[in-house]
Amino acid sequence: MRTVTDDAPLLDDLMPWSVGSPRLGRDWVVAPDARSLRARWDTLVRADGPERERLFRPTRARTPESSVPALPGQPTGTGRFSRESGPCPAPVRLGCGPFDEQWLIPDHRLLDAARPELWRVADEHQLFAVEQAGAAADRAARNRTAGDSTAQDGGPALLVSAVLPDGRSPAGRAGRIRPLHRRPGGTEPNIAPGLADLLASRYGQEVTAGQILAWAVAAAGTAPGGCAVPLTADPELWSSGTELGRRLLRIQLRGARGGDRPRLPGGRRPYVRAAVPPRPDVLTYDPGEEALLLGTGRISPVPAEAWDFTVGGVRVLDLWFGRRTAAAEPGTLEALRPAGWPPEWNSELLELITVLALLAGLRSGQGELRRKLASGPRIGRAELEAAGVLPIPAAARRPASVLDHHEEGPEGQFALV
User: Fold this and answer.
1) Which residue of 6, 214, 363, 394 has the lowest C-beta tally within 10 Å?
2) What is the pLDDT of residue 30?
C-alpha cells in the first residue's frame, strides 16, 4: 500500500462527516446465508428464561431486557426482547470487511451500537467509503519509499460499498465510514464546503461529489494520519483519473446503482469444474492449472492476480473462505448453519474472483496515475486553506438533521429526529 506526501489532504478533509463502525456485540446476528439467521431467531424466541439469556449473549449495551428505539427504516419491534415471540425480521445485506457481503438481522435490540445515523441515510442513492489503511498504513509509513511505490502492496487504500458496511479491517479493526450523501435521497453531498467550487474553477468544468469520490478511489494512498488523497491541478489528469475511478467503482459495486455485474472476457470466466464438498476443510491454489481448490472442489480458470489479491496484508479469498468454514462452538446460535455448501456460495465466490481479477487488471492504470501525480502540479493543503476549504467547519463533521424522518422509540413510543 503506497504512501503519499504530507501535503496531500486526507480523505477526512474531503469527506468530513464520518461515522464509527457498527459494533454488533454478538456474532450470531450475522451469517453468510439468510436461512441460518431465521433458524437462529426461531431457536432464540422458543427458548425461555435463562436459556434465552444464554443464547442471546448479553453485553453491557444489550440484554433481553434492553429498551431501545427501532432502527431507522426497519419495521422491527421495540418491546423488550424477553417478550419477543414473532417471526424473524427480514435479513438485510451487510458488508463484512473487504469484498464480502453477508446477512444481518436488522433488529436494534440485538446490536450493541448499530449507528442509527448510517441507517438513516442508507438508501438506493447512497454509497459508503471505507478506509483500508489501518496497520498497513503504519507499516508503509515506516518503510516509505519513492513515488513509484505500489498502491497494491497491502491492497487498496479505499473501498466503496452500496450496502451498509461494518467498517472492519481484515484484522477486525474498526474504521470510519463516510457516506457520500448526508441526507436520504442522495441530497447534500458529504463533501467539504467550497471544495467542488475550487476544483471546478481550476479545471474549467463542473465537479460533482461522485467525481470526487471516483478520484479518491483511484488516487488514494496511505499517510501517517490515515487515507490521503492527492489532488492534481491538471484538468486532463483529473478527467482521466476520475474515469479510472469510475471503472474501479463499477467493479466494486457489482452491478448496484444501475451498473453491470462484473464479467471477465469470454474464455477467462471462472466455472465450477468439480462440485464443492459439503464441508471443504482447506482452500489452496494450483498456479499451473489456474485452479482454486476447495477440498475436492475445483474452480477454474482463476487468475493468479485474484488469488494473490490482499487487503491489509490478508488474502481476500482466504478471508472469505474462512468466514464460511470456521468451526462454531456447539450449543451456540452460531452453530446453526447450512448442513452443506449452498449453491449461492458458488455464485458469490465466482463473482468475487471476477471482481478481484478485474481490480488487479487496473493496477497499471493506477500506477500511471501515481507517476503523473508525483511529477505534475498539485493542489495541496496550503491552497485549500487559502481558498477557505480548510479548516473544515464543525457543522460539516456532524450528521444532518432529518426532521421529517419518523421513527419508533422504545416500547412503541413515537420519536422524531
Assistant:
1) 394
2) 98
List helix spans (H) across 230-342: 235-253, 304-307, 316-325
Residues of the chain under the 50 pLDDT cut = 1-3, 135-152, 414-416
Residue identified by cell 501515481 is 370
- Span 159-186, pLDDT tens digits: 999 999 999 999 889 999 999 999 999 9
Cell numbers 459439503 label which residue? 278
d(CA 147, CA 243): 22
Nearest to 170, CA basis, from 308, 314, 27: 314
Q: What is the pTM of this model?
A: 0.92
DSSP E strands in 65-198: the ranges are: 92-95, 101-104, 128-131, 158-161, 176-179, 181-183, 187-189
| Cβ burial 327-336 (10 Å sphere, 16+ → b, else e) | eeeeeebbeb
Nearest-5° Cα angle at 260, 271 to 322: 45
H helices within 254-332, ranges in order?
304-307, 316-325
* Region for 255 from its dihedrals, namely left if φ exceeds 0, alpha if ψ lies in -120 to 50, beta otherwise: left
Which element (helix H / strand E) includes 360? Answer: helix 343-361
Assess contact for 61 and 110: CB atoms under 8 A.
no
Residue 2 is predicted with a pLDDT of 46
Which residues, 6+ apart, have CB-to-CB distance to 404 below 8 Å? none
Residues 6+ apart with CB under 8 A from 377: 232, 233, 234
Of the candidates 228, 215, 167, the one whose C-alpha atom is nearest the C-alpha of residue 12 is 228
Beta-carbon contacts of 200 under 8 Å, excluding residues fewer than 6 positions away, are: 206, 207
At residue 344, the 3 state secondary structure works out as helix
- What pLDDT score does 137 carry? 44
Interacting residues of 145 by C-beta distance below 8 A, sequence separation 6+:
3
pLDDT digits (tens, 9 = 90+) for 113-157: 999 999 999 999 999 999 986 544 444 433 433 333 334 457 899
